[in-house]
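Annual report, structural modelling task.

Input specification for the shikimate-3-phosphate complex:
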Amino acid sequence: MVDRPARVVLVGFMGSGKSSVGRLVARRLGYSFEDMDRRIEKRAGRRIAAIFRDLGEAAFRALELEEARALSLLRDRVVASGGGAFARPDTRAVLQEGALTVWLQCDLDTLLSRLPADGSRPLAGNRDIMRTLLAEREPSYRRADVAVDAAAGTPRQVADRIVGLIEGRIRGRAAARR
Ligand code: S3P
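The model returned the following structure:
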């Protein structure tokens, strides 16, 4: 049996589809799905918006790093990371350990069209704020092992592309060993 990654970690901006695609990839691989933000909410006993409001962003980032460490102990997981997690060098290093990291690449207009204006994402500001934040973070997202186009197609089609990439890498490694 050629090694599958212990974890597949989806990275990318808010609205790129990490959670919906992640659930589908997990099902296809027979892995469990983990949503970092939901785990942080459980750990903190409050919603993301409340963590930012009551404790501040620095406290949120500290919780994010703790959560990345907890996830790094688990196997057979597909992880949807928060949009800022991979942009933090310390959290990124932990997320990369033993994992295949996948960037869900998406243009600004598509991202904006997908984000609900419900206040659930404290950093989702106006178009200019989002453009600046995306430009700041793209160099970090580029450090993922692979990138997939997450703007085109349904979540299922994006998930198919990711599973195809993972299977291709496993076949490639098996061929290299023969
Ligand atoms: C954030 C993205 C959110 C969440 C928090 C901060 C960011 O995750 O972690 O609101 O810094 O971009 P999603 O990418 O799942 O929306």
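The helical segments are 18-29, 36-44, 48-55, 57-71, 89-96, 108-114, 127-141, 155-177.
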